[in-house]
Write a structure and sequence with these properties.
This protein has about 220 residues and is an alpha/beta fold. The protein contains 8 helices and 7 strands. The longest helix is centred in the first third of the chain and has 14 residues. It binds S-adenosylmethionine.
Length: about 220
């Protein structure tokens, strides 16, 4: 099935950001943390970077799971970051999660990172190299990388089935977002080719659920 890009990369409309922040992504976000635990079995005590953090549910889960970690969380949409800031303050994590309004590709932030995380950003990008080059520019030697995203289904029928299974009770705006995201997602083969083009040889891509792929590994 042909890819249909998202109409906009950023989620910068206040009502769209709020609907997203109020949705329950706890199952897939907790799954993301479990994948990181498998990839990095030791306690993580370093500096992590989350790309396309949205309302910061993943940075918050990560900071709770790893009490000695610090997280820089980056998004290009101020509407999302406003919600992220409230959530981080409500959790008392403002000392350990730092928000940055920045558009990818982000070359050379002011640190190098021990882990680079990203969930559900890749399918928003018209040029996926914006993500891979940002990782290459900002991950330190040996950094752990985990990127999770939706996997594009093979047919419109499969899209409809996933929307019915996972979003039938969701508000209309989120159902449409989920459907558009499935059409905009990349396939395993496309992501494989992106990693090869970026010479990210230490990373592998695989299907990790009925609707997700994950790129994981360590940089050399
Ligand atoms: C679907 S949300 C995912 C949010 C969060 N990672 C999560 O898992 O809940 C995608 C986020 O990526 C941000 N985004 C999209 N394109 C971007 C770009 N080029 N630079 C920075 N942020 C971007 C959007 O604004 C949005 O907040």
């Amino acid at each position: 099935m042909k890819r249909i890009p998202e109409p906009e990369e950023l989620m910068d409309e206040a009502d769209q950001a709020l609907a997203y922040a109020e949705a329950d992504f706890s199952a897939s976000n907790e799954f993301f943390i479990q994948l990181f635990e498998q990839l990095h079995p030791a306690e993580f005590t370093g500096q992590a970077l989350d790309l396309g953090c949205g309302p910061a549910d993943i940075p918050i889960r990560f900071a709770r799971r790893y009490p000695r970690a610090k997280v820089d969380a980056l998004d290009g949409a101020q509407a999302m970051l406003d919600l992220a800031e409230k959530a981080i303050e409500a959790d008392g994590l403002a000392q350990r999660i730092c928000l940055h309004c920045q558009y990818l590709p982000a070359t050379r932030l002011d640190k190098t990172y021990d882990a680079v995380l990203s969930n559900s950003l890749l399918h928003h990008l018209n040029d996926p190299q914006d993500l891979w080059s940002t990782i290459l520019d900002n991950a330190g030697p040996g950094a752990t990388v985990l990127v999770m995203d939706l996997l594009r289904p093979e047919s419109p029928g499969q899209v409809d089935a996933l929307v019915a299974q996972y979003a039938s009770d969701a508000p209309e705006v989120l159902r449409r977002d989920f459907e558009a995201s499935l059409y905009a997602a990349y396939t395993l083969e496309e992501v494989q080719a992106q990693l090869a083009a970026a010479s990210l040889d230490g990373l592998t891509v695989s299907q990790v659920s009925d609707r997700h792929l994950a790129v994981q590994g360590r940089l050399g």
